[in-house]
Amino acid sequence: MSQEMLYALLNAWVETxxxxxxxxxxxxxxxxxxxxxxxxxxxxxxxxxVVIYRGLxxxxxxxxxxxxxxxxxxxxxxxxxIVGTSIGSSAAIVSLTIGxxxxxxxxxxxxxxxxxxxxxxxxxxxxxxxxxIMLQIIIPEAISGIINGATITLITLVGYSAMAGAVGGGGLxxxxxxxxxxxxxxTIMLVTIAVLIIMVQLxxxxxxxxxxxxxxx
Amino acid sequence: MIEIHNxxxxxxxxxxxxxALDNISLSVKEGEIFGIIGRSGSGKSxxxxxxxxxxxxxQGQVIFNHSNLMSLSDAHLRQARQQMxxxxxxxxxxANKNIYDNIALxxxxxxxxxxxxxxxxxxLIQLTDLEQRVENYPAQLSGGQKQRVAIARALATKPSVLxxxxxxxxxxxxxxxxxxxxxxxxxxxxxxxxxxITHEMDVIKQICxxxxxxxxxxxxxxxxxxxxFSHVSSEADNEVVESYLQQEIPELLGSVMTQQVATDxxxxxxxxxxxxxxxxxxxxxxxxxxxxxxxxxxAQIDYIQGIAVGIMIVEVAGHDAQLxxxxxxxxxxxxxxxxxxxxxxxxxxxx
Lengths: 217, 351
Known about the structure:
- Chain A contains nine helices and no strands.
- Chain A has helices at 3-41, 50-65, 68-74, 76-83, 89-113, 117-125, 130-169, 171-182, 186-214.
- The model of chain B has no long low-confidence stretch (mean pLDDT 88).
- In chain B, the strands form three sheets. A six-stranded mixed sheet of chain B has the order 6-7-8-3-9-10, with helices on both faces. A four-stranded antiparallel sheet of chain B has the order 2-1-4-5, covered by helices on one side. Chain B has a four-stranded antiparallel sheet with strand order 12-13-11-14.
- In chain B, α3 packs parallel to α5 (143-155).
- Chain B is elongated and about 80 Å long.
- Chain B contains twelve helices and 14 strands.
- By secondary structure, chain B is α/β, with parallel strands linked by helices.
- Chain B has helices at residues 44-51, 74-81, 99-109, 114-127, 143-155, 173-190, 201-207, 225-229, 239-245, 251-254, 282-290, 320-332, and strands at residues 2-13, 16-28, 33-38, 59-64, 67-68, 84-87, 161-165, 193-198, 210-215, 218-224, 265-274, 293-304, 307-317, 336-344.
- Chain A binds chain B through residues 116, 118-119, 121-129, 132, 136-137, 140-141, 143-144, 214-217, and chain B through 52, 54, 77-82, 84-86, 88, 90, 92, 94-98, 105-106, 108-110, 137-139, 157, 163.
């Protein structure tokens, strides 16, 4: 492989990391509270509210039911509005983030629901506010589930970012498409795949390690 | 200290209304251990949850330290709850926090500074005998230790009442005993009022000063524990209460027992005695002094919180005058005798 190709590979790798980390971070930033609200307002939640739950739930389902490749195209105007361009990694981050938020929200909602209801009862009996119950009891108890969810989200984003690459998002997906697929460069294709596999393995390993570290069950 | 006035609670499930609490009134005095016993579905769990309003009654009043909890704002209700500790059948400890942090939780919720928290918690850890376990996580503890952590946690806010929801039901008999002894010690040393619900009569026998029996959302009997077990009661007990006392008349006799006196029938007596009367040679006296034949059908002596309570069910045979004298003698000894009925002579003896 030429020095040039190596440089292109490195560049694409950095772009992928950039996309996954930023959209993953933003996805968690918005998805965590959204998941928490779904959990709290859901059936027999501490702040049960049918209107909010149905409204948010339907929106989340709607976004999740759109195939990601369609979502990217549909969100081009939004990307242009936010980052001023519809191509490149930064533009891809907009649709990756929008795609990740509902994904994270459902993951978080499910993890929180795993916490035994008795702990909420114990919290209420101690005179805790709903916010204290959430922050001091439910989230700490659900932490390993949330981390597992975040791991799956990041891995999914690695895959999605490749798709974003197909429509001008840059990154490893883009590289594999242009060199590997369109120019039949098998080496580049294989190297890209190897890098992706290693990335996913590392994310999974780090996630598992962290989840095990924080869980005491 | 805690007064419940006419509370009602019902649940609607699939167009069917289930009445969980049917007009219950109750008053618990400061410093007492009050036990509520009932079968599953009797409403006892709902009742104890109504005391700290984890379940809100549909109507009625819950008075705690002179304030009606039902009319408090959310913020004031939370403050009131901090004066009530609660422990649960399944402990409800946080699996991801160590023992120290579990016990500290209610104080952190009160936003107490860490230094003060430590001052409060260390004696509680000693009291509950968990010194070696501070750094451990709940998964590393036995059931009894977990419940001790829960007790320490419940006591952290220095509550004036402790609510125990089937606190020993998930524990083996030996561990149950040690937890009950701990509760009793806390009750004595800290003058802490304890309200517990259980389905095990042994729990009531061990530590409760007073008992309420619940069935179908109602309290069907409320009495001092010793009186309850020694049958000092004016009203007749119903089946549920009888079943808890475990003094059914043997089936063979029950089927032929009548309430009518006839010729050739013998009375069945239930003789209840407590305290010093346990040491009297009752049967011998009846036989020797009154020439009454005594056939013991059932007899047991229980020690309820150090006081002996004995119950005997006997068939007696003799002349009417002798029987009456015998009865008078027993009653003079402060022994309760109840004539349960009459059975045909020789009903249980081979002819």
